[in-house]
Amino acid sequence: MLVLGVLLPVIGLIIGVVMRLTHFKWRIAPVDWVTFSLLLASDILIWSRYRYQATSLLIVIMAIMAIFVAVSLAWRRGEILYRTFLKIWWRLLFAPSLLAYLILVVLQWY
Hints:
By secondary structure, the protein is mainly α. Helices cover 82% and strands 0% of the residues.
């Protein structure tokens, strides 16, 4: 489980780069694939270390961030465009998921 939790973000990055370099021009950047794989890897690492399924906790954190992004978009622009909202929300989700993943990887060794 630990190996899968550590290698999953690398696999997500490889998928993102391959999808970017192929003739299928998706609008999904490699950072979007890495964000998804970091969330999955964090759940796997929490399960392997603490035997706790953290999917519901991750969903609540994602929902709280979505509320803050929606309020800030409405405040600054006066409207919420769904494409812009989803892109900003997903890209902002990268930083906390990376931080949580790094903390969980360090905790696995103690």
